[in-house]
Design a protein that fits this description.
Helix content: 40-55%
Structural class: alpha+beta
Distance between the termini: 68 Å
Largest sheet: 3 strands, antiparallel
Strand order of the largest sheet: 1-2-3
Number of helices: 5
Strand content: 5-15%
Mean pLDDT: 84
Low-confidence stretches: none
Length: 150
């Protein structure tokens, strides 16, 4: 922690927040960046508040990634059930991609894996061979060859 202060807002719009606030300064040891958090919670320790904000930021990044990569900028339905269903499907896809990334141990990013799967959606290929970049195997079955050219 770099600071833990009690402050009072002043200015034109200060009447919206009449109570005292807590201003917590924090320097992230991993990145060296300095953050300042405002809160009205005086019961928790400053370390707990910074941990909460750090986790909250990870959640924001998670939903940003989902919105950018899984195409749920707009919802297909407007009911509560439709919105929740679309979010659950996106979260399941995210977890599957994370699992594939973990199991492959190839160092590919989630977006790279997603693009590979999108481009090869209708190809019958071994997943690990696809992720490694192995060339596709030639068609060996005559039935598959006939269906390929149909």
């Amino acid at each position: 922690m770099t600071s833990d202060q009690t402050i009072q807002l002043t200015g034109v719009k200060a009447e919206r927040c009449t109570g005292a606030l807590r201003r917590i300064g924090y320097r992230d040891p991993e990145t060296g960046k300095h953050y300042v958090f405002l809160t009205n919670n005086f019961h928790l320790s400053s370390r707990t508040i910074t941990a909460i904000y750090k986790e909250r930021w990870q959640i924001e990044l998670f939903f940003k990634w989902i919105k950018q990569n899984l195409k749920i900028k707009t919802f297909l339905g407007t009911s509560r059930n439709a919105v929740l269903t679309q979010i659950w499907v996106a979260m399941c896809l995210y977890l599957l991609l994370a699992y594939i990334r973990f199991m492959s141990k190839l160092g590919l990013g989630m977006q790279q894996i997603l693009r590979l799967l999108q481009l090869n959606l209708f190809e019958r290929r071994d997943l690990m061979a696809l992720l490694r970049g192995d060339p596709p195997q030639p068609i060996t079955s005559p039935l598959q060859a006939r269906l390929q050219f149909a």
